[in-house]
TrEMBL record:
Keywords, alphabetical: Isomerase
Protein's UniProt name: dTDP-4-dehydrorhamnose 3,5-epimerase
Claim: Isomerase is one of the keywords in the record: yes
InterPro entries: RmlC-like, RmlC-like_jellyroll, RmlC_Cupin_sf
Pfam annotation, one family: dTDP_sugar_isom
Family that this chain belongs to: Belongs to the dTDP-4-dehydrorhamnose 3,5-epimerase family.
CDD domains in the cross-refs: cupin_RmlC
């Protein structure tokens, strides 16, 4: 059975829900399925240039991270262990959904996955100790291209649970607000993001 999918409140972002096959040995699941991806986005998945794996304790907040565009990257993210609120934020100047975000609880029961288009910001909040997040990305990591928006920016109002005390890196604690990043011309251009993303699937 192919994965189900639905669009999120950020233009070009989707959540995918695969069929999970449990038995007395454990389970089997395919978090990324090309037919569902093609049906949702109209093209094949991007070529994966790098895969990332993070382990977080409860309360860790990572993000809002994004990549300077160009070069820009697309991401496909799922949670193979634990639970996390995964958040996509539209940082693309000129996008019809600029400044909006959407959130999905990713976990090791449903194995839902999220697709982040080029130029979108990514954040997550670990809800359990030993939460693992797995990322497939379309470009390799270059430190000077990696930027961040504060996940505590009140203008964004991200859904951090009241019983969570955010544990953040110094980089994320010092991150700019969305307004500050816009004033400093650090946010990606929507049209440029679309052009780059189209090239990822040629």
């Amino acid at each position: 059975m192919p994965a189900e999918f639905r669009p999120l409140n950020v233009e070009g972002a989707f959540v995918f829900t695969p069929k999970v096959f449990p038995d007395d040995r454990g389970l089997f699941v395919s978090p990324l399925q090309e037919p569902a991806f093609r049906e949702a986005l109209g093209h094949r998945p991007f070529r994966v240039a790098q895969s990332n794996h993070s382990l977080s304790k409860r309360g860790v907040v990572r993000g809002v991270h994004y990549t300077l565009t160009p070069p820009g990257v697309a991401k496909y993210v799922y949670c193979p262990r634990g639970r996390a609120i995964d958040i996509v934020v539209d940082l693309r100047i000129g996008s019809p959904t600029f400044g909006r975000w959407d959130a999905v609880e990713l976990n090791s029961e449903t194995f839902q996955s999220m697709y982040f288009p080029v130029g979108a910001g990514h954040a997550f909040i670990a809800l359990e100790d030993d939460t693992v997040m797995s990322y497939m990305i379309s470009g390799t990591y270059v430190p000077e291209y990696e930027l961040a928006i504060s996940p505590l920016d009140p203008q964004l109002g991200l859904p951090i649970p009241e019983d969570i005390t955010p544990l953040m890196s110094p980089r994320d604690e010092a991150a700019l607000t969305l307004e500050q990043a816009r004033d400093q011309s650090l946010l990606p251009d929507y049209a440029t993001c679309l052009e780059i993303e189209a090239g990822l699937h040629d």
